[in-house]
Amino acid sequence: MDQHDTFDILVIGGGINGCGIARDMIGRGYSVMLAEKVDFASGTSSWSTKLIHGGLRYLEHYEFRLVREALIEREVLWAMAPHIIRPLRFVLPHHEGLRPTWMLRLGLFAYDHLGGRKLLPPTRTLDLAHDEAGAPLKPEFVKGFEYSDCWVDDARFVVLNARDAADRGAVIRTRTEVTEARPDGDAWRVTLRGADGATRELRARCLVNAAGPWVDHVLGETFGRNDAHNVRLVQGSHIVVKKLYDHDKAYIFQNADGRIIFAIPYEGAFTLIGTTDRDFEGDPRDAKITDEEVGYLVEAASEYFRTPVEREDIVWTYSGVRPLFDDGASKAQEATRDYVLRTEGGHGKPALLNVFGGKLTTYRRLAESAAERIATMIGAKGGSWTARAPLPGGEMPISVAQSFANRLCSTYPWLDPSLAARLSRLYGVRAQDILRGAESADDLGRSFGAGLTEREVRHLVDTEWAITAEDILWRRTKLGLFVTKDEASALDSYLKDVTGHAAHAA
Question: Would you state the pLDDT for residue 334?
Answer without folding.
Answer: 58
